Amino acid sequence: MSNEIEAIKDPGLPAHVHRKADHDPVAAKRAERQVAILFGISSVGTVLLIASFFIPEDIFIFVPVMGSQNAHQLGLGLGMAISLFFIGMGAIHWAKTLMPDQEVIAYRHELRSEDVDRKEFVVAVKDGVEASGIGRRSLIKRSLGAALGLSALSPILLLRDLGPLPGNDLKETSWKAGTYLVTDPGDRRIRASDLEVGSVAQVLPESDDPEHRKLNDIAKDAVLLIRLRPEEFNLDAERLSWTHEGIIAFSKICSHMGCAVALYEQQTKHLLCPCHQSTFDVTRAAKVIFGPAARPLPQLNISVDGEGFLVARTPFSEPVGPSFWGRISS
Amino acid sequence: MTTEQRIGQVANYVDERTGAAAWMKKNLQKVFPDHWSFLLGEVALYSFVILLLSGTYLTFWFDPSAREVIYEGSYAPLEGVQMSAAYASTLHISFEVRGGLLMRQIHHWAALIFMAAIVAHLMRVFFTGAFRKPREGNWIIGIGLLTLGIVEGFLGYSLPDDLLSGTGIRIAEAIIQAIPVVGSYLSYFAFGGAFPGEAFIPRIYIVHVLLLPGAFLALITAHLMMVWYQKHTQFPGPGRTEKNVVGYPLMPVYMAKAGGFFFIVFGVTAFISAVASINPIWLYGPYTPGQITAGSQPDWYMGWLDGLVRMAPPLETYFFGYTISWNILIPGLIVPGILFTGMALYPFIESWITGDKREHHLLDRPRNAPNRTALGAMSITFMLVALINGGNDLIATHFDLSINQIMWATRIGIIVLPPLAFVITKRLCLSLQRADRELVLHGRETGRLLRLPHGEFVEVHEPISPEKAYLLTSHEQAPPLALPEVDGRGVKRAGALRNKLRSRMSVAHSEAVPKVSTDDLKEIEHH
Ligand code: HEM
Ligand code: FES
Description:
heterodimer, A: alpha+beta, 33% helix, B: mainly alpha, Cytochrome Bc1 Complex, Chain C, two-stranded antiparallel ribbon, 8 strands, binds FE2/S2 (inorganic) cluster
């Protein structure tokens, strides 16, 4: 329909232009030599690789632009690069200069089968289905369907022991009423006076076996202590009572996706998560002031014992870390 | 015995047992069209081979285990540090195995090149319309390979269990955990309990080195068999039609070029790996959930996802005590799901819009399919904005901007810029079509001025060659679908709304500057 207007005619494939090497034996000989040289360079690369294998690993050489480089590594890499690259160059130069460069034409055939074949195919399938009787014998059809469907359940069942059910695991941490806060690293108890105003410290719950802390525990237990001047807080009475002499404790596990909230800006009193830049205001109980996190970092209720060591007064009042379906359900 | 006789003997032996000679004869002469953009898929294929080779090398030393060990290797700064066996063995590969660091870097660089080549190849296929019938199946396989590639790469750089990769796993865990109803169960099944546990590294290891490479091999084989069987598409031009293939025979030219090109890709990958360090895991330290490296960045093919997650609004809803984290679900699952499904279905969507059910073996020049090209530009723009936001911290420190500024710019940009890219690209395509028309009608500007008898200066135009004129006019300009909303008796047809939508899209799709016909040329000659 669109071609009612007369289109410009196809002039056909342009005439082939011969290369010099096609009719000039000298040019052909030169091309052959060039290919051989390229393959030769490759072999030199392999020799470089072998030699570099024996360079001691502690020798460094200065390379302009790149600076100081490990000679062993650089030699191995460059040797390998040269040996491979020039095999490729040689092969392509060979193809381009000496192999036939006349484009040839092949014809396509429609992918569609002949009408007869298509008809016969349909008949064959129909005959096959009929011969099996699956259409007529509905009892077989249904019971087979049920059997196949049911058998698909077995892999699901067999994969059940991939892991335990979460239960209350995601909602609990090692922090209990009376758990001491200890430094990480170091595992020493902390006095309020150990922390200067404006400083931060990472702490963990005191453990019987600090040498063998489980990563699974750290992933929920890590806490940040920050000390401000008490009047800098902007908290309700309850949350203020969770602090001690300007020391406030938050879960270090981001309420967004669980990264460690590691950056503290002293001037603004903001905690920043480097993963997606959620920013929490320390003075307002880690309220989210920027970024994708939807919830403040859980605050830990802390106080001191008789000797002045920092201690948790209660467990966390909510699950730490990223959200999940049943996070606030009981 | 001459070479010919020897080949004859081998061929005879094989043929008498397989009857393969006839098939081989035909296929050794198979014709492959030549164009630089057809090399992109080859780069992807060759990088995959490089990944198989270098990955297998790494398995000889890598210990996929979360077992705690005390480091005693030759990298002094980590002496005596507690770490997983996976991390320690990666250090061992990097510092004690001769050539190990090179192989690690080759493996990682090859992964980046692999993904870049897949994306570039996919763009070539998209913008030239190579996905049209009969190649829709291969398009879908390609999208499958892209998706698996992203997963495979992510699992790969999670294996060494350094601080950076552990952080990536933590984020993946949070995405799983955010799935409504079953999220925390799925996460516990995947990790064998709580995050990070000890089961995950060995599990993803077997997926990384066996399951997914197996899937890749199967899909790539199917992909190439289809290309072989359906024959390659070709760009339009004189002598090239829907019914032929113009190019070089497999044996010897294409074989030599393709084989040579494999070595070039491998050589270039080795060169980059020799001079450019990548993923220096010893600088990050072993993973522990309480710490993080500043400026955490995933590999680039994950960067757009990270960027989407970063710009998501802080939205969570709670009902009946249950939590839905839109801030994670939307950027982490819903948007990528829509994007990839849409991409996979695109061939069918386009053929529904145009009503075109014919086979196509001649490629489109992107300007001659303005709507499709504009859609592609729009998608790329979306991805780029997301990717830029994925590196917002780096950009902020580099260009002295605040992260807030970049975040807000990209939050607005991701909504405003893609449609803008669509409009601009479409106009650009149409004006390129207009330029083609001018060229055919009036020839090429030569820059030479001619003084006419009465003193006026005109520029001399030189007519273009018949080959070029044919190239610029050989494309088809299909009229939009005519879908009447009412039938012959004036009754509204069923599905009127759908038809209306389809007509609208069809009109937009067939928008074009009329190409030059012989009549146009004749008319000019008369003047
Ligand atoms: C499409 C295919 C593949 C991709 C995209 C890919 C990607 C990656 C990446 C990005 C890494 C991190 C490397 C690092 O910086 O340390 C990695 C590690 C690894 N890969 Fe692969 N890979 C692929 C296939 C394979 C195959 C086929 C094998 C083995 C048969 C393999 C074995 C390994 C091993 C053992 C490691 C860990 C060792 C280490 O990180 O040093 N990979 N992979
Ligand atoms: S994990 Fe902290 S902002 Fe995403």
